[in-house]
Design goal:
The chain is an all-alpha fold. The protein has 13 helices and no strands. The chain has helices at 39-56, 58-65, 71-92, 100-124, 130-136, 140-152, 158-179, 185-207, 213-238, 245-273, 275-280, 285-297, 305-321. The longest helix is centred in the last third of the chain and has 29 residues, at 245-273.
Length: 325
């Protein structure tokens, strides 16, 4: 995939300096993102790609976590751990409290990315395999692009939408082939997760143009801490816990890797190359998750997976070359 064309025409992107300051500092403003494959564009694509790799491990790690935790315990504990990690980073780097104009957007990120998506997908994974859940959530790039167009006023080109819709069609066909055309309760949880996560991604990507992405997700996690702590206490008291190597590794990854570090690089990448274009990198996420599900969980890899992989990667290449007006 390439980053030869910029997906946005924003003149500058706010990034963190060594003190954690935002756009106010003289060294905290990145150079203009120019068409033609500048270092900023390549860096943004790389960062967003690293976020996708981190997210691709989320479902297998959640499946591991469910071996020792109940669904409510797992979600609340991962939120507490991630919030403590984020709060420590915010304190260590002396990050300023978000301005009033940013707080509503951070609340949307918290509701969508920190609480809603983890809860709904964890509930879905009680009845769905990780491979099935991965291909359903493969619709997230198109959903995010649509939310971005509505929220930010971006106007992706026709080629962009054609490639995005083609990628979504591949994912839908793959899902239907796996499930035999039936829509289960788990699928309903997953479709709900798509909508709420797309809203959180879009709002987070918008905010990351005005403040460092790590602060966006950091404050969203801290905002949820007063709710997550009592929820974890109640859930752990009501749901049995059986600690194993898998369950501990799973909860640690979804807390540190998926919930915090992955989102830090993801929002930074979206700020540099645009929400719509970065979202299309997630078309590769279901295929990566399929690989992890086989390697880590021993699930059977569907025969159609290699064909879907090639088709999806072609769609990614087209969307990454398409400009946004």
């Amino acid at each position: 995939m390439t980053a030869q064309n910029s997906a946005t025409d924003d003149p500058s992107i706010a990034v963190a300096d060594s003190r954690g300051d935002g756009a106010a500092g003289g060294t905290a403003v990145a150079r203009a993102a120019r068409p033609g494959g500048t270092p900023t564009g390549r860096n943004g694509t790389l960062l967003a790609g690293l976020g996708v790799v981190a997210f691709s491990l989320t479902f297998p790690a959640t499946a591991w976590g469910l071996e020792g935790f109940g669904p409510w315990s797992l979600v609340s504990v991962r939120c507490v751990l991630a919030a403590l990690l984020a709060g420590g980073a915010l304190l260590a780097l002396r990050a300023p409290v978000p301005e009033r104009r940013h707080r509503a957007g951070i609340a949307v990120v918290a509701a969508g990315v920190v609480l809603g998506f983890p809860l709904l997908t964890t509930l879905a994974l009680q009845t769905s395999t990780t491979s099935h859940a991965a291909v359903v959530v493969g619709l997230l790039p198109l959903t995010t692009a649509a939310f971005s167009a509505l929220r930010t006023g971006s106007r992706p080109s026709r080629a962009f939408w054609a490639a995005a819709l083609a990628g979504a069609a591949v994912v839908i066909a793959f899902t239907v082939q796996q499930s035999g055309g039936a829509v289960s309760t788990g699928d309903m949880y997953l479709f709900g997760a798509l909508l709420i996560c797309a809203a959180g991604y879009t709002e987070g990507g918008r905010l990351a143009r005005e403040m460092p992405g790590w602060r966006v997700i950091g404050w969203a996690l801290v905002l949820c801490l007063p709710l997550a702590v009592p929820a974890a206490a109640v859930a752990l008291a009501l749901e049995p816990v059986h600690l194993t190597g898998h369950s501990i590794a799973g909860v640690l990854w979804v807390a540190a890797g998926s919930q915090f570090l992955g989102l830090v690089v993801w929002y930074r990448g979206m700020a540099e190359i645009g929400v719509a274009r970065a979202s299309q990198l997630q078309l590769a996420q279901p295929l990566l998750t399929l690989v992890w599900s086989v390697a880590l969980l021993g699930e059977h890899l569907p025969v159609a997976a290699p064909i879907a992989a090639v088709a999806v990667l072609v769609c990614i290449a087209v969307t990454q070359r398409s400009r946004t007006r």
